[in-house]
Amino acid sequence: MISNLTNQNQVFIKRRTAKDSECQIDLQKELPLIFKAFKIASSAFEKEVAQTPIEARGRGFEASLLNSKMIHSIQTTFPNNWKYGKYKRFILRVNKYSILFKKLDNKNMPMNINTNFSKAISNQFTMSLFDEGTTSIDPILFFGYKKDRLGNITEPKLIYIDDNTLQWVLTEENIDLFSTNKIVAVETIEKVKPKIKILSPLKKAGNQ
Question: What pLDDT is attached to residue 1?
Fold first, then answer.
């Protein structure tokens, strides 16, 4: 659904609403690849960060390194679908969805600095993500993760935010369950297909 919101004489056009069930269908090929790319990025990050002594790690070193590994992994997996937007935001565009990558807080919300641009994203307004000013009604999704107290990267998930509120979450388990249920549904349909019996030709009667 697309609607217009007016605030202080400004008209904000909303992007197309994203539903989790539709998203699983639309991105049924891409989502497993995104989760796989995340695992590759996490492994590469852990190997490289272990080579740098703690006392040698500057401010934001780990966050920057993980972000770079994630970008590289997504670029390798989707070489024709990525682009840098405003403020050097890395964006994956697949099947009419724009996906951003962010660390999440305890409420599964992206850890953004509160700006007019981040507010527009959290409210699904059609403010352009790119410097050239082109607008789109494609929904914006976030692929995010958390870090536990030991510094381990955990809980990768795809989230959708609208009206500055978390609307739904998709985890790798959701994706696997969806794929399994889809296969079962197909098999069930196949089993109940009516069987066609081929009749043998009628024998010719003698002495016609």
Answer: 46
